Co-chaperone YbbN
Amino acid sequence: MQPRNMSMSGVVDLAAVKAAGEAKQKAEEARARARTAGEQGGAGAAPDASVSSLVTEVDEADFEREVLQRSTEVPVVIDFWAEWCEPCKQLGPLLERLVREYAGRLVLAKIDVDRNQMLFQQFGVQGIPAVFAVVAGQALPLFQGAAPEQQVREVLDQLVQVAEQRFGLTGVSVGGGEGEQPAVPEVPEDPALAAAHSALDAGDLGGAVQAYRNVLAGDPGNMEAKLGLAQAELLQRVQGLDAARVRKEAADAPADVRAQIRAADLDLVGGHVEDAFGRLVEAVRRTAGEDRDAARVHLLELFEVVGSDDPRVVAARGALARVLF
């Protein structure tokens, strides 16, 4: 089975600008508590990780501790596997070796799906091997199926980069292992993309839009730049809007597509993802011709902001299809 393209949508979901900031703050608070506990010699101190602890078998009983809590310190890669799965036997050792090479920038949690059906279902796994990540408590799909080493490396490089830039997660120090500690792979940072992120974080929306466009001019397939551009343009559209007035206009004129689009943008920025999607699906249902097409196209643009693998996008695509066909 060929691996799906990696999606970072769960990390920068739009609750995006909002949720990512909140998750980063929670991760920083968790690290601060761990440091304080360590200074006081408390039982809650977070010790350095040994090389052997970078790869662990996880079940439903210890999932919260080994994955959710740990993800506030370091990105946790999850390998869903089973003993009878031949592709799993190819991918598993590769993931273990690569994670150890990252020397604490990532850790690997291996979950046997036969013994952990609840986790298998909660993550919506469609087939194995399936690889997910949890970053600052947020889950996101990486790929499904056995993959070539170079492609897996590229996915892990991107995960490390996003975890550090968006959430401030630099990993855990590694000690206590046998032999020489492996070198941490260098993740090259695109200066143009870093400048775009900085402009977005600083609230310079015009600068961010232009910077992301500059990145895409040279690299049209850069998914991180596409997502950043979509976020920046969305924030630009809602900047200066009177939220109360926009919502009243949308409520008073349900067939006014422009009013519904403005309200949907506000919904999305406020973290009300389902409301934004539902509003535009309804606008598509109510209208025809150019208005219907405008609502449909804008809804598709919002799907890109949130990410195609997000279950809310999947559900809304189904709702849109039912309305259209």
User: Anything to note?
Assistant: The domain at 243-324 is CATH 1.25.40 (Serine Threonine Protein Phosphatase 5, Tetratricopeptide repeat). The first strand starts at residue 55 and ends at 57.
